[in-house]
Model the fold of this input.
Amino acid sequence: MNRQSMIGIVRRFQSQKVLVIGDLMFDEFIWGRVNRISPEAPVPIVHVTSESFFPGGAANVARNLKEVAGDVSMMGLVGRDEYGRRLLDLLRSGGIGVEGVQQSEDWQTIVKTRIIARNQQVVRVDRERLQAGASAHTTAALEILDRLVPQMDAVILSDYAKGYLNQQMVDRTMTLAQGAGVTVTVDPHPSNPLDWSGATAIKPNREEAFRVAGRHPVDEEGPLLEAGKILLDKWKTQFVVITLGEQGMLLFRRDQVPYHIPTRAREIFDVSGAGDTAMAFLTLALSAGADPVLAAEIANHASGIVVAKVGTATVSEGELIGSIQQD
Done:
């Protein structure tokens, strides 16, 4: 792989305008230390030393993008509650556009709290409730799409199956993007079986790939290769990238042999948000002119960096270029 070509693509990230559309969440991290086990139950007692807060879900994709891209905007839905306000403040302070974020009295902002001690996640607490679909907000969302999509170089559809994305919004996004020559990538969720026809690339993880392909997840090469080919036909996309954790990534293109990319991670501390990082950098690379192999290689480098950090971390341009040079 030509290192200079990869670095040249990375240096073009700053000129890219990207819109992220999807389910928004508020990520809360409680950091502490463990000295003993509770006398009340066989669980550790965590003495809190600090707390930190980050945009989560699809907003974490936007956060990853903003570290290296020129212009990043977010589109989604939050509640008119404390966490919704705090999430919007986090996005604004991070330089992420929130013109496309809708607020609703009948929507509860999703909160994920992770308690971490000695660089290990002790427990995760989710605050969310099953919410009615966002159909009531679709009309306004379609108007936002009409306004924002043609201005972009790329659009990311980040689906966590929390009720925001629906087929009408996806279809409008694809139509607008095709008319304006905008790259569209998708991070799908098997629980929300939408038709992604028209996407440039779709990036499931291993388990998601097997589920959507209708196959039982196994740690074997043959069934995985079969699943990838099924997804290419099912999704009618140009190519599919399946992330494989510590085994890297697998790229599927039409009429070509699958291309395996080993992980570049030297250490793995925390995989939280690694898929979001891969999604962000795959999209940026494609919109900056990379071919599928080059884009997947760059995304793999970024993922290898972020899993060596604790929490939902980001990757800087310098870190990425350093990883490419050391490879």
Summary: The mean pLDDT is 91. The CA atoms of residues 18 and 183 lie 9 Å apart.
